């Protein structure tokens, strides 16, 4: 008699994400294009790596003094400290008062997994999470799988073609007391001083817990301090928060899981209590986080000359993004594409909304084999001298041929 | 009014493990010794690294053709395939029939976390886990935190001073139907052919699910095939199982989380269903596992000359372990320490029972500052020419001065 499988009731799992990429890969059209990669691409269509990273990688491999022992559960302490200083600035209130700390995690998914486990256990009054739509996968799903109710929000105004701070303020106003609010690249959404004050006051009065998602420091404006300055508004209001700090994309280290779950508490004693709980979760998740990426980044951040070299590589990439956006806008103008395309250059960073409606997006994917997400937010570094003409002509067609 | 902390109810977490190491570190006695490190140590008291690893590390850093893109959620496919062949042998039934697969995990803790999450969801009929005492921390705690009932077992017979297969068989006989049975370095416990048959038949009839914990392949006998040959008994009985395969200790890559959760199912279709579910858990845990260690190991395993070099380094370490054990036994004999110490050399691998009772262990720790676990199972590679005299004299004292 054949044996009965233990796994007889296990179904094939549904794929949770990546369906656009999958469809793209299955497409046999020779001129197909994928404009939704998560990371910055070079003009040769390869993932960008900061030039200083390759140099340090070699130096580390040649260093005979290094041992490769297990790291502590918390991770590499020097990596955590260097990254906290990068995030907040050396002289930040939370650093000086010793009330910011972190746990070295396996990338940003690891940071969200760790943070979500903590909040599931210790933030019992509300198990509702707000998250920006574009981050529903994979971070929102981590909360959802753990039993949180996940609500999506979006602050792209498709009519006005801009990121609208008042939309964000409305979402926060309507969000329930005590919920968790995942905040991504908010620096792109130009809040005025009074809007920042209103936002933080609202969060404080409603005891909303901010959980920042920062994986683009230096890739929004190339000014490292500018890109995370908004955290000061939260710090100055005595808000406590978590922050997933990922350093994959701004160094070009994609395969090493370089993340930190940053904790800001009201004082050092509270911080230590939270970190001690997080350590127990991390012990069960992976025991020791991987160190190669962390070691490379620490070497760069702790050496002013190397840090300067890294900053210059960030400036290079930002200049390139601005150039691509200008060219796309100019080509659309020359093609006589209806509408203003200023919103393309008004948005910062690699990922920006094209400002297309769902029919136009569908046209691009189905008719032109140009794969872009439904919300029309693309990675502009996927556009290069080889494909820009085809892409802009396709956008022009999509706009002209799909009038509402 | 000062703000009220979100974290006000969060207590300082209790430390779950490492208390012996912590006490050791706090001890100011100059001649203190720690004999419970998890990894093989060199005679200079440093964690052992296979010489071929350093060479490949450098080669990889110099390779301009490598990109450092995100790995798939499953991890590095070439690493998984090479590791499966190492574990089962190229011509194993499960490889040929395409019913063994794996997910690349962040070390063995990651493999247990992933496996436990799967079993929590898909093995609902029994949530009882049996685990050998020495692995209660950290692997048993992963199951416990997830709500499993965890029972410890031990097959060291403190009277007969040997690993007793009949103890193991008794435990399995008494274990409840359908439980999960975590099995560590069982090759050390010399089962006869008929005992193996009895063990696997028992497990099959009671639908006990084996979860192997293999982190020492090549470090038990230096014969890679010999160390995992017992898996064949389970395969030939058509038992399905999980296996945490960790390659940290046998390559000397401790800080990179090189693990695999291996799945053996009755056929390829079942395997793919299980892997698809595991992939969704892995996506939430860390999304992409780290690659540095996996890349080094794959380079070695896929190159016969490098694999030979690695095997030779394993032979070197095993010879050294046998030499240390012989010397310890000889020194105890010369000191006239009561009792036979043959059990030291009869056990294989770095970690073996000294065969001391709890009073003797306490004497060693408290009076002689020689830190060894309560069960008296020490890492013999922590003993070297500099400390062997002090250690054997201390054991002699402990035995002579603590008569029952």
UniProtKB/TrEMBL annotation, chains A, B:
Primary location group: cytoplasm
Catalytic activity: L-aspartate + 2-oxoglutarate = oxaloacetate + L-glutamate
Aminotransferase class I/classII large domain span: 58-395
Record flagged with keyword Cytoplasm: yes
Keyword set, alphabetical order: Aminotransferase, Cytoplasm, Pyridoxal phosphate, Transferase
GO molecular function, one term: pyridoxal phosphate binding
UniProt cross-references to InterPro entries, sorted A to Z: Aminotransferase_I/II_large, Asp_trans, PyrdxlP-dep_Trfase, PyrdxlP-dep_Trfase_major, PyrdxlP-dep_Trfase_small
UniProt-listed Enzyme Commission number(s): 2.6.1.1
GO (cellular component) term, any one: cytosol
GO BP of this protein: aspartate biosynthetic process
UniProt key word Cytoplasm: yes
Subcellular location: Cytoplasm
Domain of life: Eukaryota
Cofactor(s) listed in the protein's UniProt record: pyridoxal 5'-phosphate
Subunit relationships: Homodimer.
UniProt family annotation: Belongs to the class-I pyridoxal-phosphate-dependent aminotransferase family.
Protein name per UniProt: Putative aspartate aminotransferase, cytoplasmic 2
Species in which this protein is naturally found: Sus scrofa (Pig)
Taxonomic lineage from the root: Eukaryota, Metazoa, Chordata, Craniata, Vertebrata
The encoding gene: GOT1L1
């Amino acid at each position: 008699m054949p044996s009965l499988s233990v796994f007889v009731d296990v179904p094939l799992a549904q794929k949770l994400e990546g369906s656009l990429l999958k469809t793209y890969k299955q497409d046999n059209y020779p001129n197909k294009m994928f404009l939704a990669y998560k990371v910055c691409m070079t003009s040769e269509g390869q993932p960008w790596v900061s030039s200083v990273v390759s140099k340090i990688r070699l130096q580390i491999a040649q260093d005979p003094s290094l041992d490769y022992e297990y790291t502590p559960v918390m991770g590499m302490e020097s990596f955590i400290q260097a990254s906290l200083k990068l995030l907040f600035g050396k002289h930040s209130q939370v650093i000086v008062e010793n009330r910011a700390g972190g746990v070295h995690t396996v990338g940003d998914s690891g940071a969200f997994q760790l943070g979500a486990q903590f909040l599931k256990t210790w933030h019992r009054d509300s198990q509702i999470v707000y998250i920006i739509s574009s981050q529903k996968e994979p971070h929102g799903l981590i909360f959802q799988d753990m039993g949180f109710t996940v609500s999506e929000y979006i602050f792209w105004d498709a009519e006005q073609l801009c990121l609208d701070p008042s939309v964000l303020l409305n979402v926060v106003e309507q969000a329930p007391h005590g919920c968790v609010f995942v905040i991504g690249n908010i620096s792109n959404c130009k809040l005025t001083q009074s809007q920042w004050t209103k936002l933080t006051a609202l969060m404080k009065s409603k005891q909303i817990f901010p959980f920042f998602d920062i994986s683009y420091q230096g890739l929004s404006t190339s000014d490292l301090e500018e890109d995370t300055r908004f955290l000061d508004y939260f710090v100055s209001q005595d808000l406590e928060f978590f922050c997933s700090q990922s350093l994959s994309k701004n160094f070009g280290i994609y395969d090493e899981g370089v993340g930190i779950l940053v904790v800001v508490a009201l004082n050092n004693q509270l911080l230590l209590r939270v970190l001690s709980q997080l350590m127990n979760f991390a012990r069960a998740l992976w025991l020791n986080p991987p160190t190669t990426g962390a070691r490379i980044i620490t070497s760069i951040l702790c050496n002013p000359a190397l840090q300067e070299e890294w900053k210059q590589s960030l400036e290079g990439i930002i200049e390139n993004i601005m150039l691509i956006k200008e060219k796309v806008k100019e080509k659309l103008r020359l093609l006589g594409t209806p509408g203003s395309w200023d919103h393309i250059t008004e948005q910062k960073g690699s990922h920006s909304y094209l400002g297309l409606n769902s029919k136009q997006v569908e046209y691009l994917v189905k008719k032109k084999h140009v794969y872009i997400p439904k919300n029309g937010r693309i990675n502009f570094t996927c556009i290069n001298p080889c494909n820009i003409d085809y892409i802009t002509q396709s956008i022009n067609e999509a706009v002209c041929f799909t009038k509402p």
